[in-house]
Amino acid sequence: MSVLNTKNVSPRSLSLLTAIAVGVANAAMVFFITFSARISLIVLGVTFAVIYAVYYYTLQRFIYRKIKLIYKFIYQTKATKREEYFYENVLPQKSIDEVSKDVEQWAAQKRNEIEILQANEQFRKEFLMNLAHELRTPIFSVQGYVDTLLGGAIDDAEVNKKFLTNASKGIDRLVRLVDDLGEISKLESGRIPLIQETFVIQDLIKDVYEEFSLKAHEKFITLSLKKGTERPILVHADKQKIKQVIVNLVENAIKYGNENGSVIAGCYEMDEKNVYVEVSDDGPGISEEHLPRIFERFYRADRSRARAIGGTGLGLAIVKHIVEAHGQTVNVRSKVGVGSSFGFTLDRGTA
Ligand code: ADP
What is the mean pLDDT of the chain? Predict the structure, then answer.
């Protein structure tokens, strides 16, 4: 490091520089008075030594130690008694460069913490905004129908039943939203333990298919297991929660799927430890720009269509939560006009 590098000057180099400057000036003055090189050299040596010692001591005592005090304060805010002893007795041996490096590190760490807090704050704000928006739509719809009915439509036999049915649909939507929100906050609190058991994954998929047979039939959609993956595979997981995952994926596949389409679930043994489960459809697909955000709360690929279909925008967020609570991963592959495949891993079970 250059002595003249003022940005990073150390107490030692500052003292050295000052001692040289004063020493040379003194020696020059003495030389012009005495014309004796010997005396000038002695003056140079003595001045240099005295100035260097005094300057270095002063810098150390009044600046360097004060900086250290700040440094200790920074670290002691969270220090235990033992650590305090360590800082008191070990730290003074550190150089000013080390001290400043440590303080820089501390500042960077604090900056990082602040950034995380700001991101969380942003996330919270967005969540509240989205939530207000999601609640507003069905509430306004119900309010509109009820007001119209009270305003006289109740006596109009042609529309009264239709308006009441629409109001009831709005209320159903609100109930679904509140249910899904409850589910997500339960999962996020981390207080709900996983009740793991060993079961055949294909049997669970068939149960879900059974529950959705009517809805699938209405759109002439077939629900099946992929050929060659029917052989029973044991998994070890929370059966009820994994059922919820499959329900959400199959429900979406039917909801967004085309009429006369098909939903196919495949189960694969990846290795001795893991099983891969995939629910595929031949529906409209999801364009690439939406794929990275599809598991976020309230994110919808096609807003108007998804709303019209009546989703809460929380189904895939719940899927992700449940799968990750199992220490597993979930992914999506999709191509517009071809279809979508949602897959997740599970632990293999032993009989
Ligand atoms: P929603 O309640 O809106 O269905 P989800 O979290 O379940 O919320 O899904 C998020 C969005 O992902 C949906 O709004 C839809 O745009 C898209 N999506 C999910 N599954 C499919 C699918 N199988 N095919 C096409 N789009 C899908």
Answer: 88
The rounded Å distance from CA 300 to ligand 1 centre is: 6
- Which domains are present in the chain? 2-94 (no CATH), 126-189 (1.10.287.130), 197-348 (3.30.565.10)
This prediction's pTM: 0.72
Q: CB–CB of 15/55 below 8 Å?
A: yes
Under a CB-based contact definition with an 8 Å cutoff, are residues 286 and 270 in contact? no
Residue 248 CA: nearest ligand 1 atom is 7
Ligand 1 center from residue 245 Cα (angstroms): 13
Per residue in 274-312, pLDDT tens?
999 999 999 999 999 999 999 999 888 876 666 666 678
Q: Determine the distance separating the centroid of ligand 1 and the alpha carbon of 301, expressed in angstroms.
A: 7
pLDDT the model gives residue 319 = 97
> What residue ranges line ligand 1, CB within 6 angstroms?
248, 252-253, 256, 281, 283-284, 286, 294, 299-302, 306, 311-317, 340
